[in-house]
């Protein structure tokens, strides 16, 4: 049965996701409600998709004797960095569609903010408000290094390897956004923002390498990441994120969302846009 459908078994509700219910919701007490469609029997546990009504998670455990539930909670605890006491089932413990509540008491220590401290980092991280690179740049240098190829040209100078920022982050994700299917999911304003941000990010990185030749790969990575928030905001992220959040969520590698550096940037963007700017539409 497809995620989001209602099912009855032995007089009890099976799948709990209902129409018009969001995959993520902020409760009045500050906790986060997550609607998950679990897929037991997988080789590895990982987030597989983010939909409007549910988040798909593959589970490396068989669907028996509570093993899948235990593995699901273990995996979510690991990626979200919360304690066992901070994550619990609210509904659907015996079905594949579940409602899980996260009530993290941890405070962000990046810097003080007027955003309510009860807003967990999860709310933005699972919706991919962290962008490592953006599509189809118009940035061009004298050697014709345009679009995603600009990252390859930067790599020739930097030699940071396949896991370094230019190739491991910039070029890898940029290529994803060259896919017409990915781009077709964005609104016209979303595409305009993406193009603007791409040029901004590549220009910032090229300018740094020109100004600081011989910079270490750590310096290059740090400087590249430091330009993300400014470029996103400057190009109008706050005005497009609500209408494009699901297109963004489907475009990124979920494993990239859960680093401390990513969460720092999510927090900075939330402060600029307001914590709920991306959840008012769509």
UniProtKB/TrEMBL annotation:
InterPro entries: DUF167, YggU-like_sf. One of its GO terms (cellular component) is cytoplasm. SUPFAM superfamilies: YggU-like. It comes from the Eukaryota. SMART domains: DUF167. HAMAP family: UPF0235. Belongs to the UPF0235 family. This is Uncharacterized protein. The lineage of its organism: Eukaryota, Metazoa, Ecdysozoa, Nematoda, Chromadorea.
């Amino acid at each position: 049965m497809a995620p989001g459908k209602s099912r009855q078994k032995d007089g009890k509700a099976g799948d709990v996701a209902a129409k018009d219910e969001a995959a993520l919701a902020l409760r009045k007490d500050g906790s986060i409600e997550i609607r998950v469609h679990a897929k037991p029997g997988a080789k590895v546990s990982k987030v597989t998709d983010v939909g409007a009504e549910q988040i798909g998670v593959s589970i490396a455990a068989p669907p028996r004797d509570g093993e899948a539930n235990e593995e699901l909670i273990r995996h979510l605890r690991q990626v979200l960095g919360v304690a066992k006491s901070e994550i619990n089932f609210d509904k659907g413990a015996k079905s594949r569609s579940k409602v899980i509540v996260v009530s993290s008491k941890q405070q962000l220590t990046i810097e003080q903010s007027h955003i309510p401290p009860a807003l967990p980092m999860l709310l933005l991280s699972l919706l991919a408000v962290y962008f490592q690179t953006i599509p189809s740049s118009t940035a061009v240098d004298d050697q014709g290094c345009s679009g995603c190829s600009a990252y390859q040209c930067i790599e020739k100078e930097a030699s940071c390897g396949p896991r370094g920022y230019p190739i491991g982050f910039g070029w890898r994700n940029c290529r994803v956004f060259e896919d017409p299917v990915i781009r077709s999911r964005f609104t016209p304003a979303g595409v305009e923002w993406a193009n603007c941000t791409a040029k901004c990010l590549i220009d910032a990185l090229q300018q740094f390498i020109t100004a600081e030749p011989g910079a270490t790969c750590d310096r290059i990575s740090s400087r590249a990441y430091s330009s993300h928030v400014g470029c996103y905001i400057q190009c109008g992220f706050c005005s497009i994120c609500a209408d494009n959040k699901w297109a963004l969520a489907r475009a990124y590698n979920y494993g990239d969302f859960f680093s401390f550096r990513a969460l720092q940037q999510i927090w900075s963007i939330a402060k600029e846009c307001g914590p709920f700017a991306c959840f008012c539409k769509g």
